[in-house]
Specification:
The protein has about 425 residues and is an alpha+beta fold. The protein folds into 3 domains: about 5-140 and about 230-235 and about 245-275, no CATH class; about 145-185, no CATH class; about 290-420, 3-Layer(aba) Sandwich (Trna Endonuclease, Chain: A, domain 1). The chain contains 12 helices and 23 strands. A hairpin with a 2-residue loop joins strand 7 (about 60-70) and strand 8 (about 70-75). The protein is globular, with a radius of gyration of 27 Å. The two termini are about 50 Å apart.
C-alpha cells in the first residue's frame, strides 16, 4: 500500500540558512502560522534547532525534518561552496549518511525509497516504523506480567485487607485483591501505541492514516501517560524485546519530539533532527572501523580523568602500525588551514593525555585547501626540558575530507584518513 506526504508541501533548506515569513521555496510558502508554531516549539527545546528572528528563523547545525501541519521543512547539511547547492544531492548524502550511521535501518531503505514519491526523511521514518509494527503484529506482540488491583466477586491473588474493608463494608460478597495478570498491557506496547497516536494526529495521506488506525486496535491504550527519555531506558534488551528494537528507536523520535497544537489548530509539530557534529563524527568512526585489521585498532570516546571529577574524551583514538593517533572531527566550513585556538588547545590536551604521537583535526572539505602536514607544537621556552634532544615533541595535522565523491556520499573516507597518516 502506497503512502505519501503531498510533494508540494516539502520545503528544503540548508543548515544555517534563514527562513522568513513569506519566503517561497520550491512552490512552498513559509507562513506566519508556521513561524508561530516554530516559536512555540523553540520555547520547549531552548532554541536548539534554530534561533528566532523577527518573522523568521535561522537554522543551526542540526539537520533533519520538521513537520508543521501540511508543511514539511527538510534541513540539509551544507559542505558546498556553491551559492545554490543541489538540494537533491545533499538530500541523498544525508539519507545515506543516516543509513551508514545506522539511524535508518539498512535493509528497509532501498525498498521504502522505491515506494515513496517524495523520499522525505519524515516520510521514510513513518514508512519504516509502520513496516516494523506490521512485522511485530505478524510475529505476535509479546506479553508480560503486571500487577492488577481489582474489586471482584471472587478472590484472586492476595486480599488487600484495608482497601477491602473500605470498599466492601456493605458488599461482603466482593473481594478487593491484588494479582498478577499476563497480557499485552506493558510499557513497550503502550509506547508503540503512543507513537501510533502521534502519527494519527499528523497530517497524513488517507492510505497511511487507515494503516495507522488499524494497527492501533492491537495495542493497549497509553492513556494520559507522558513518556520521557527515562521510560525508553527502562526496558531490558533480551530475546523477547529484540524484535521491538527498531520500532522503539523510531517511536522514541516520534513521541519525544512531538509538540501538539494545544489551541486546537492543525499545526501540530514533529521534529526529527540530528546534530551534524555528532553525525559527522559517527560517520568518520564507522568508515575507519570497517577497515579495522591486525594493524589498525579504532576506538571512540575513550575517557581519562582531567580535573577533579571532570574527564576528557576525544572523538576517536587510532593505533595504526603500533603508533597512536588522536582524531577530533569538526563540522565547520574552513577557508584556510588555520584552526581556531580552542580547537588547537583541545587537541593538544588530547595528545598529551593519550600519549599520542600525532593528532588530527578533521574538517569537511569545501574550498580547495591543502591539508596542513604534521606540524610540531612549539616547546615552551620559559620552562625548557632538561635536554632539548629528549624533549617531548608532539605534532598536529589538519585534514580536509571530501564528503561527496561523484556527487554521492564518499564511502572511501576511512581510506583517505589512513593515507594522510602515511
Amino acid at each position: 500500500m502506497n503512502s505519501t506526504i503531498t510533494p508540494t508541501h516539502l520545503l528544503q533548506v540548508f543548515e544555517h540558512q534563514t527562513l522568513r515569513v513569506g519566503d517561497e521555496l520550491h512552490g512552498c510558502i513559509f507562513s506566519k502560522k508556521h513561524f508561530h508554531a516554530l516559536a512555540r516549539y523553540s520555547e520547549k527545546n531552548g532554541g536548539k534547532y534554530y534561533s528566532l528572528l523577527f518573522n523568521g528563523v535561522k537554522f543551526s547545525h542540526y539537520v533533519g525534518a520538521i513537520q508543521i501541519g501540511h508543511l514539511t521543512i527538510e534541513i540539509l547539511p551544507k559542505a558546498d561552496k556553491k551559492e545554490k547547492p543541489d538540494t537533491h544531492q545533499w538530500h541523498d548524502v544525508l539519507m545515506d549518511m543516516l543509513k551508514e550511521c545506522r539511524l535508518i535501518k539498512v535493509e528497509t531503505l532501498a525498498s521504502a525509497r522505491l515506494q515513496l514519491r517524495t523520499n522525505s526523511i519524515l516520510e521514510l521514518y513513518f514508512e519504516i516504523f509502520l513496516k516494523e509494527i506490521e512485522k511485530l503484529l505478524r510475529k505476535g506482540l509479546f506479553r508480560s506480567y503486571r500487577k492488577v488491583e481489582a474489586n471482584a466477586k471472587f478472590l484472586k491473588g492476595k486480599l488487600i485487607f484495608h482497601k477491602n474493608i473500605q470498599k466492601n463494608f456493605a458488599h461482603q460478597e466482593r473481594f478487593y485483591s491484588e494479582y498478577q495478570q499476563y497480557d499485552y498491557d506493558h510499557l513497550l506496547n503502550r509506547i508503540l501505541r503512543r507513537a501510533l497516536d502521534v502519527l494519527e494526529t499528523l497530517v497524513l495521506s488517507p492510505s497511511l492514516l487507515s494503516r495507522v488506525k488499524e494497527m492501533k486496535t492491537y495495542f493497549p491504550k497509553a492513556g494520559n501517560q507522558n513518556f520521557t527519555d527515562r521510560d525508553f531506558q527502562r526496558f531490558r534488551h533480551d530475546r523477547k524485546t529484540e524484535s521491538y528494537q527498531t520500532a522503539l528507536e523510531i517511536a522514541r523520535l516520534l513521541v519525544l519530539n512531538f509538540s501538539p497544537d494545544l489551541r486546537g489548530g492543525k499545526h501540530h509539530l514533529l521534529a526529527i533532527m540530528f546534530d551534524m557534529n555528532v553525525l559527522f563524527e559517527e560517520y568518520v568512526f564507522r568508515q575507519l572501523k570497517r577497515l579495522e585489521n591486525a594493524d589498525l585498532e579504532v576506538k571512540r570516546q575513550q575517557r581519562k580523568p582531567f580535573f577533579q571529577r571532570r574527564k576528557i574524551q576525544p572523538d576517536i583514538v587510532l593505533t595504526y602500525f603500533g603508533k597512536k593517533y588522536v582524531l577530533d572531527t569538526k563540522w565547520k566550513v574552513m577557508r584556510a588551514a588555520k584552526p581556531s585556538m580552542p580547537d588547537l588547545k583541545q587537541i593538544y590536551v588530547y595528545n598529551k593525555y593519550f600519549k599520542a604521537e600525532r593528532s588530527l583535526l578533521l574538517y569537511p572539505k569545501v574550498y580547495e585547501i591543502e591539508d596542513l602536514p604534521p606540524t610540531p607544537y612549539h616547546p615552551s621556552e620559559k620552562f625548557p626540558s632538561k635536554s632539548r634532544v629528549n624533549a617531548e615533541i608532539m605534532f598536529c595535522q589538519i585534514c580536509f575530507l571530501d564528503i561527496k565523491s561523484d556527487n554521492k556520499l564518499n564511502r572511501n573516507l576511512g581510506k583517505d584518513i589512513l593515507c594522510a597518516l602515511q
